[in-house]
Amino acid sequence: MKNIPTLYDWVGGNETLENLTKVFYDKVLRDDLLEPLFKNMSAAHTKYVAHFIGEVFGGPPLYTQGDEGSHSKMVAHHIGKLLSEEQRQRWIALLLQSVDELQLADDPEFRSALVAYLEWGSRIAVINSKLTDNPLQQDAPMPKWGWGVPGGPYIPEA
């Protein structure tokens, strides 16, 4: 039986994710469509997003314990923002450009899991951005994302 790593381990852990979110948000702040949404983000925003993704991808609870975040708090940041489909697509495009630029794990299985998560999460963010109240209870569990249909990375059998 194969030893299947978490998405967090496969991508390279927290340092990799923090680097990714820094590179990504640098792009966001130079983007005419997205900059207005993020121009007032805190200095720690990139770290919090990296910790959130890391925890969702099977890493340690840096977001929920270290940052005192929760799934409900993450959703709350999107309430009332009225995000557009164009903004959602640009957000994904810039994030995937950043992934490519940093040459992160680019095997098809990881890319499939990453893109699936980004599509799922960004579409939920758009839905929640049209609400006036948070649909999640404060104790809602963090989402957990795995390899999906592929079941893990491609590891040729010897």
TrEMBL record:
Top-level taxonomic group: Bacteria
CDD domains found in the cross-reference section: TrHb2_O-like
Keyword Ribonucleoprotein appears in the UniProt entry: no
InterPro entries documented for this protein: Globin-like_sf (IPR009050), Globin/Proto (IPR012292), Hemoglobin_trunc (IPR001486)
Stated name of the protein: Globin
Signal sequence bounds: none
Keywords recorded for this protein, A-Z: Heme, Iron, Metal-binding, Transport
